[in-house]
Amino acid sequence: MASIIAKDISLVYPMIGSDTRFKSRVRKGSVPDGKHVGGRIITEKGKRPGVVAVDNLSITLRDGDRLGIFGHNGAGKSTLLRMLGGIYPPTSGHIAINGKVTGMFSLGLGINKEASGIDNIKLKGMLYGLRRREVSELIPEIAEFSELGEYLHMPVKTYSAGMIMRLLFATASAFKPDILLLDEWISSGDVSFKEKVDQRLDAMLETTPIVIIASHNENRLYGWANKVLTLRGGRVLTEEEAGYIPPPPPKFQPNPEDVQALHKAMNFERFEEALDISGKVYPFEENPAIHYSRRAPILLRMNRQDEAIACFEKALEADPNDPKIYDQLSRVYFVMKEFEKGITMLEKALILSEGTQGQIAKLAAAYQKAGRPDTIDEIARRIEQETKAYHDALKTEQNTVDSTN
Amino acid sequence: MVDVTDNSDLPELRLDGPIAAGWRDLTLGIKHWRIYVSLAWHGLLLRYKRSWLSMAWISIAFGLFALVKIAIFGTLTDTPIAFFAGYLALGYLGWRVISNFVVGGSNVFIGAQNWIKSERLPISIHLFKLVVNNFITMGFHLIPAVAICVYFGMMTKEFFYSLPFVVVIFALNGIWVSSIVGIVCARFRDVMHLLVTIVQVLYFATPILWVPSGDGIKATVAKYNPLTYYLSILRDPAIEGTIPWHSWQLVGMFTCAGLVLSFFVFVYSRKNVIYWL
Q1: Residue partners of A339: CB distance under 8 A and separation at least 6
Q2: Which of B7, B9, B10 has the most A C-beta neighbours within 10 Å, making it the best mutation to test the interface with A?
Q3: pLDDT value, residue B130
Q4: Of B115, B138, B100, B139, the residue nearest B29 (C-alpha)
């Protein structure tokens, strides 16, 4: 059984050597005091200078625990993660770690950039305590998951940051550790890999006894963990049961091959075919709004504007709160030089979502073309007011629902 | 919710003293031979990356250096050139091992901080890595050194009999030297720069380029320089044909004293090393 017991652990990063000169600068108070990131800096006379990264923290983790560590920059997340992984010994207090640990901390660490991907996998495996043969057996799996292909035979220095992350994640997760430690950078991969990572993490949650993740994405953590520690300045601000709320049911996922076929048909301007595929990939029964909103752009490419507009309108009937559809429709109207209609649609889109500067500018341009005198500031202010009104209305609606409950 | 009061189902919190923990670090470290051998090999490959001759350069550089020195300093000495050639080649061989341990030792933890900060491993692994690294290098140095000795007729079978013991003694000394130097240099960065100068001075204060004789100042320097005896256990069997028992005794004493000293330095500062990097 894997476990981590930490009792009253603290970690003070000492400032030594010529670094101690920073102490006197800090003490002079040349920088205005205020809200701070980072742990307390020890500047008192007679005390050794240092930075308190983790301050007197106790925690016990056993099989099945998924700990989320939340906090701002410098709150002590990464340091605590490394302490729980047995890399940094506490400067006071005690910690006992039972079980094999793998972790992914930062991209630069624990990798030999001159060696090939394969060599790094072998090295990592060895560091983890596997035999050469055991590592070799894992390589096909790691290669497949990381999708690095022939790059696995190239030196890691030729990899991009995302590719290094793929390599590290694929490797660390293939080892089936007792304790898995993840620092948040894991979420920096591209979308398709992120999905794979999430899937594998879900699978690993089932099989890995203890998982610890440090992140500043609170929502993600609460969906993930059964315990969430919130740190500030190395101290525990709150400890909460997160109850491992299962993630929301997955949205309708189209088959990637079909999506590719659709893109291909569009690229080769086989629009009839594209319409067919689109109908299949985004079926009406699954989500009518998406069904129509995907169909409409194809009709546009075929110069069937009226049908496209009808299609968008049907999509809005199905989902009247999707700003993207309003935005798309506004563009169609602008192209058709129907500025008034376009303005109405774009304003809707802006009220429903936080509009970008570019969208506001576009709106102002449309006003001008429609011959209306409003300036860009006036428009922006009005949109802001209407957005606020919309949200207030939404809130009161919710409150009435709550109170009736 | 984070409840530390009831841990009855978990193994007890083990509170090792620094000596027990340090000893475990060493024994665990030595068991992970795959790791340090592999790290050492990759480290060497890295140094010679993209060169066609790769590690052969270790042998070539040593051979060229030794030959040039024999040519220059051989003319400045009264000793017969054959004797001087063997003397210098083997002396330089031993010196390179020693200086590699001192200079490499100063960087043994600093250079490995990448690994120390990301993997849960005993830090003694990096000491053993340095040992392996230096003996691979010594193996490459041995080829030109022995070739020079054989060419000048200064080779005996006693040299090869005693070589394994010399290697073991050098390895043990390498461990204690590099652990002390590595820890001190991690904490006090100025020492690292000072050491480079000290090693350069020591090179001239050690009988490598010169042969001590009589009662002159050279003989006194050689007598009080412990490194003389380390070189003698390696060199004498080949050039004198005898085993220098007196040197072995002294070296044995230095080794024991150094190992004991370094053990305490290691166990009491081991935990802090990571914060000094």
Answers
A1: A333, A366, A367, A369, A370
A2: B10
A3: 95
A4: B115
Its pTM surpasses 0.90: no
- In this complex, do A96 and B11 lie within 8 Å of one another by their Cβ atoms? yes
Q: Tell me: do A223 and A306 sit in the same domain.
A: no
pLDDT, tens digit (0-9, with 9 covering 90-100), for B237-271:
988 888 899 999 999 999 999 999 999 999 999 88
How far apart are the CA of A154 and the nearest CA of chain B, in angstroms? 14
**What pLDDT, on a 0 to 100 scale, did the predictor assign at position A405?**
46
| Domain identity same for A172 and A316 | no
Residue A254 lies in a domain: no
H or E element in which residue B118 lies? none
Instruction: List the Cα angle A392/A398/A403 in 5-degree steps.
Output: 125
Put simply, the answer to whether B2 touches A17 (Cβ < 8 Å) is: no
Q: Which domain holds residue A352?
A: 259-404
Q: What is the sign of the dihedral through the CA atoms of A29, A30, A33 and A36?
A: negative
Any domain includes A146: yes
Task: Express each pLDDT in B114-157 by its tens digit.
Answer: 888 888 888 999 999 999 999 999 999 999 999 999 999 888 88
Q: Is A7–B15 a contact, with Cβ atoms under 8 angstroms apart?
A: no
How much of chain A exceeds pLDDT 90, in percent? 0
Q: Considering only CB atoms, which chain B residues are within 8 Å of A1?
A: 10
Instruction: Based on the fold, state whether residues A145 and A212 are members of the same structural domain.
Output: yes
Cα–Cα distance measured from residue A148 to residue A121, given in angstroms and rounded to the nearest whole number: 12
| CA closest to A229 among chain B residues | B2
Same domain assignment for residues A152 and A10? yes
Domain layout of chain B by residue ranges: 31-276
What mean pLDDT do residues A296-323 have?
A: 85
Residue B84 token pair: 């001087």
* Domain termination site, one of A191, A207, A241: A241
Residue of A114, A168, A235 to mutate, testing the B interface (most B Cβ within 10 Å of its Cβ) = A114
A294: domain CATH number is: 1.25.40.10
A54 found inside a domain: yes
Q: Searching chain B, which residue's CA lies closest to the CA of residue A85? A: B120
Chain A residues in contact with B45 by the CB 8 A cut-off are 114
Nearest residue, CB atoms, B118 vs list A59, A87, A91: A87
Give the ipTM of the model, two decimals please.
Answer: 0.79
**Tell me, what CATH number does A204's domain have?**
3.40.50.300
For residue B199, the model assigns a pLDDT of 95
CB pairs below 8 Å between A and B: how many?
99
Distances (CA, A) of B17 to A25, A58, B262, B274: 37, 21, 17, 18
Among the ranges given (A16-20, A340-344, B62-66), the one the predictor scored with the smallest mean pLDDT: A16-20
Q: What is the DSSP letter of A184?
A: G
Q: Are residues A189 and A88 in the same domain?
A: yes
- Clarify whether residues A39 and A188 are in a common domain: yes
Residue A236 within a domain: yes
User: Does the distance separating the beta carbons of A17 and B190 come in below 8 Å?
Assistant: yes
A30-67 pLDDT, tens digit per residue, is 555 555 677 778 777 777 788 888 888 888 888 888 88
Total domains in chain A come to: 2
Do the beta carbons of residue A72 and residue A232 sit within 8 Å? yes
